[in-house]
Amino acid sequence: MVLSAPARAGSPAAERAVRTPAVTYLLIAVSALVLLVGPAGPNPLYGSGDARACAEQRYQQRWGAVPAELLGGHPLSAAQLSALPPAAPGCALPPTPGKSPELSVLTSLFVHAGWMHLIGNLLFLFVFGPAVEARLGRVRFLVGYLAIGYLATYGYALAEAHTADGTRALVGASGAIAGVLGAYLRLYPKARVTALVPLLLFLPLRFPAWLVLGLWFALQFWSVGAGGSGVAYLVHVIGFLTGWLFAWAARPAGDTLGAPSRTGVAQ
User: pLDDT digits over 169-178, tens only?
Assistant: First the structure.
């Protein structure tokens, strides 16, 4: 959860170049709009109960990134779709012959499996995105965000294509947003991050960014082996590492890493 957005984005030159984090806000707005009009939101056209659950599964399978499709280069067959567990009794998944597996990676970054999934992702983007966008610039930030999303998704596909999850749709921007966290850690390692620590009451304490984000990454890495939760933790790990490397390679010439920044986030 977020306590406050960054108070300072970084170097004065970067702050002058990007006064408003327009790309960050645009990504948040598009993701929220997609949820609102889709079956995971309040749109009454998708019905309720089992009908809505079935519509959500069909929607995610149509617009999500499916590992077997990404590596095979074509949509799942009717037989493969019929083997998937239905979201509701009698829910059949129709073939999607017009689906482009390559383009589905892009669409999957804006599809979320409900409000909690959306909010959990976008809070991190809202807190850490503006500072990274200010330092890298709008174009670099957008290109990096999308490229990291693609790399994390394809990395996950390589690992899961021949498992039980190989025919299930991957949705959400968590891989790209993990890249934003990795980039933030690279660009602002000495920033102070406010976290809520549950000691009797939730106490706001300040920690270095390297500690907070480092612990977050360690938890994701550990969760890859734990498995069983339905969360694609491997996407987070790949995204975080790729984002760290991208920030190192794409920062403007003459920019100094580690300029002070303030960020508020509750862990």
Answer: 999 999 999 9
